[in-house]
Write a structure and sequence with these properties.
Elements: H1 2-10, E1 49-50, H2 59-71, E2 83-87, E3 90-93, E4 97-100, H3 104-107, H4 116-128, H5 139-150, H6 163-181, E5 190-194, H7 203-207, H8 212-215, E6 225-228, H9 233-240, E7 245-248, H10 267-276
Parallel strand pairs: 1-4, 5-6, 5-7
Antiparallel strand pairs: 2-3, 3-4
Bound molecules: pyridoxal-5'-phosphate (PLP).
Pyridoxal-5'-phosphate (PLP) binds near residues 106, 198 and 256.
InterPro entries: Aminotrans_3 (IPR005814), Class-III_PLP-dep_AT (IPR050103), PyrdxlP-dep_Trfase (IPR015424), PyrdxlP-dep_Trfase_major (IPR015421), PyrdxlP-dep_Trfase_small (IPR015422)
Cofactor: pyridoxal 5'-phosphate
Organism: Eleusine coracana subsp. coracana
Length: about 280
C-alpha cells in the first residue's frame, strides 16, 4: 500500500491511458515529476565520497550500532551502515560515504530525499497544525482524499499510516462486504494469499504472510488463510471456487519474497478470477 501511494504521487495522469470505463482523470494540478533520480539533486554534503570499497566500521558508526542494541528492541537485522542524510536518490552515511538509494525507504520515497516542495509542505503543515483527533474534521485530509479519488479508480479513500494497517483494513472491509452481500449468514470469511508473500507484521497481516520466520514465533495467528503457489492461477482458481474465500491478497511484485513479478496470467489472472467468482 505504501508503494502504491507513492507511485500514484509520482506518476502524471495520462489522458486515455486508464484501465477502461469508470476511470476518472483530473487535469494535473502541478508539474509532473517522474522520478527523483531523473531530477538533478542538490550537491551532496561536504566531505561525501563515492566508493564501493569494503570498509572498517568507524568509531562513530560503532557507537550508534552499540547504542541501538542497548536501547532498541531488536526487531530488525540491519546492515551495519549508519545513514545520516539523503539528497534525491543518494544517501550519505555517518562517515560521508555516498550510496544509491535503491530501496527508497521501503518503496515510499517517490520524491527522493530533501525534495524542496515536500520539505516546504511538511514544514508549513507542522507550523500550522501537527495532529488532531479523528473525532473532528481535517481540511488537508479531505483534500488529499478528493485528489486521490479524482485521479484513480477509487470511489472513496481509507487513509492509513502503514502498509500493514492498510492490509488490516482490507481484511475487515472484505469481511464486512461479504456479510452485507450474504445476508443469509453464509458469508465467506477466509482468505487466499501466495507462496513467499509478505503483507505486514500486525496479527491479521501476519496471518496472510506465508514466510514462516515471521509467523511461527507469534502463532496462533488468524485462522482461515490458504496459501497457493505464486503465479499459479489454476491452483488459485480451485481455492476461490471453494466458495469460502472473502478476498485474495496478491503482490504485483514481491519484495520480501525475492523480487518476483506476477505479470499477465498470474497476478491479474487472480484479480480477474476474484472479480468473476463473486468475491467483489
Ligand atoms: C508488500 C508489502 N505489504 C505490506 C508491507 C507492510 O508495510 P509497513 O511496513 O508500512 O507496515 C510491506 C513492507 O515492506 C510490503 O512490502
Amino acid at each position: 500500500m505504501n508503494s502504491l501511494q507513492s507511485s500514484f504521487l509520482a506518476a502524471a495522469p495520462i489522458a486515455g491511458a486508464g484501465a477502461g470505463a469508470g476511470v476518472r482523470l483530473a487535469a494535473p494540478t502541478r508539474r509532473a515529476r517522474v522520478s527523483a533520480c531523473l531530477a538533478v539533486p542538490p550537491p551532496p554534503p561536504t566531505g561525501a565520497v563515492s566508493t564501493g570499497a569494503p570498509r572498517e566500521l568507524s568509531a562513530a558508526s560503532r557507537a550508534v550500532i552499540e547504542d541501538e542494541a542497548r536501547y532498541l528492541v531488536g526487531t530488525y537485522n540491519r546492515s551495519k551502515v549508519v545513514i545520516v542524510s539523503g539528497r534525491g536518490c543518494k544517501l550519505y552515511d555517518i562517515d560521508g560515504r555516498e550510496y544509491l538509494d535503491l530501496a527508497a525507504g521501503i518503496a515510499v520515497n517517490a520524491l527522493g530525499h530533501g525534495d524542496p516542495d515536500l520539505v516546504a509542505a511538511s514544514a508549513n503543515q507542522a507550523a500550522t497544525l501537527v495532529h488532531i483527533s479523528n473525532t473532528v474534521y481535517s481540511q488537508p485530509q479531505v483534500e488529499l482524499a478528493k485528489r486521490l479519488v479524482e485521479t484513480s479508480f477509487a470511489d472513496r479513500v481509507f487513509l492509513a499510516n502503514t502498509g500493514t494497517e492498510a492490509n488490516e483494513a482490507a481484511i475487515k472491509f472484505s469481511r464486512k462486504f461479504q456479510r452485507v452481500a450474504h445476508p443469509g449468514g453464509d458469508a465467506p470469511v477466509e482468505f487466499l494469499a501466495f507462496s513467499n508473500c509478505f503483507h505486514g507484521r500486525t496479527m491479521g497481516a501476519l496471518a496472510l504472510t506465508s514466510k514462516s520466520q515471521y509467523r511461527e514465533p507469534f502463532e496462533p495467528v488468524m485462522p482461515g488463510v490458504t496459501f497457493t503457489e505464486y503465479g499459479n492461477v489454476e491452483e488459485a482458481r480451485k481455492v476461490i471456487r471453494s466458495g469460502k474465500i472473502a478476498a485474495v491478497f496478491v503482490e504485483p511484485v514481491q519484495g520480501e519474497g525475492g523480487i518476483n513479478s506476477a505479470t499477465g496470467s498470474s497476478c491479474w489472472g487472480c484479480g480477474w478470477l476474484a472479480t468473476r467468482l463473486e468475491l467483489s
